Fold this sequence. Notes:
Layout: E1 7-9, E2 15-17, E3 20-21, H1 22-29, E4 33-37, H2 38-55, E5 61-65, H3 72-80, E6 84-87, H4 90-98, E7 106-108, H5 115-123, E8 128-131, H6 134-146, E9 151-158, E10 180-181, H7 186-195, E11 200-206, H8 217-237, E12 243-245, H9 263-281, E13 287-290, H10 294-297, E14 301-313, E15 317-322, H11 331-335, E16 341-343, E17 353-358, E18 367-374, E19 382-386, E20 406-411, E21 414-419, H12 424-427
Parallel strand pairs: 4-20, 5-6, 5-13, 6-7, 7-8, 8-9, 9-10, 9-11, 11-12, 12-13, 15-17
Antiparallel strand pairs: 1-2, 2-3, 4-14, 14-15, 14-19, 16-19, 17-18, 20-21
The structure holds pyridoxal-5'-phosphate.
Amino acid sequence: MMICNNLSVNECGHLMFAGIDTVTMAKKYGTPLMLMDEAKIREKCSIYRNAMQENFTPDSMPLFASKALSFKYIYKIADSENIGIDCVSAGEIYTAVKAGFPMEKAYFHGNSKTDDEIRFAMESKVGHFVCDSIEEVSVINDIAKSMGLTQKVLLRITPGIDPHTHKKISTGSVDSKFGVAIETKQAYELVEKTLALSNIELMGYHCHIGSQIFEHEPFCDAAKIMMKFIADVQKMYGYTAKELNLGGGMGVRYTEQDPEIDYAANIKKIADLLKELCSEYNLSLPKILMEPGRSIVADAGLTLYTAGYLKEITGLKNYISIDGGMTDNPRFTLYQSPYTVVLANRMNEANDYCCTVAGRCCESGDIIQEDVMMPKPKRNDIIAVLTTGAYNYAMASHYNKVPKPAVVMIKNKEDFVVIQRETIEHMIATEV
Ligand SMILES: *Cc1c(COP(=O)(O)O)cnc(C)c1O
């Protein structure tokens, strides 16, 4: 049952997370509540940072993919862990700036950057832009020129890899709204045109093949294609990439069926291959970047709900309702994502009752997980959904005008609020 080493059960039969009783937290802060384990976030940052510095060039580094979970405190952690960040909007950039993050270590992504966002990112001194198309590079060039600066960029290249994950979270194949394909030769054209721009400094390339990938092979396949691209471009245009960003996508354990991942070992395998390829192509190893999001924060988070009503449909199915749902975790609704769900206040009782955990929205699809085995739940039990640190709060919505939950960080067994619970007043603050 314990899918991550920050989980345990105490003598009262309560779920413990990061050394703290989750039932006590639910009482103290109310529900729905997201708890985060700072030590786990830091552990993951350092696994990536150390493995990358040891196996690639010493200036190589992970960039935390902000879209997985963006709030001020997490950028402070990223800064103190000495890693970079990837941002995809003015909102994420602004949050990082407000946290005092050194923005030269930020990479600005997105396939639809607006003029205002581009200008805002430049004013915020974002170090690198990751560009998705030639049209975008030339817009960035024009804005950089008007602001009297030269902007460093990476070009997003689609290597044509299908990492066999869910279609909605697979992004490296040719038919994608992201990047420019090698297969169609448009990637070469993009490089040639970018090199001719006066206010762009081309630093190298980016690729991102998908998400929740457990094996190292898809990353090695991408690395192979990207190194060949670097070598080909060098032959064609005499330009050598200084940086190669291999994107994010390493998986995490949502359930016991998911394998354990040795991130450092995967990084070493990718590095061994890259070094081999570099000697084959007679290139020196570029600075390598990776953009883990999910694997930094997912198992550093869990969500607590209070159980509502139990609906038993005779001969068919049981539903336990909760005080949150797709508004704070839309991932089952979107992707049928698996999660481990437990009854946090009765961990030592037999899991002999099958029920579907249903959210509170007026939407049949508002389900957190189907057919979960747990002790027969009662109203006011505390239901914990594990591994919710990534793409939960970040994807939260105001559907049915439900306010967003509070986020509480646990550090050295101390708990403190990092995002306040939203109130109804917050939600209507923009309304006239
Ligand atoms: C989503 C995304 C990431 C992060 O992916 P994870 O699966 O969370 O590691 C990194 N880079 C880019 C460009 C992305 O779109």
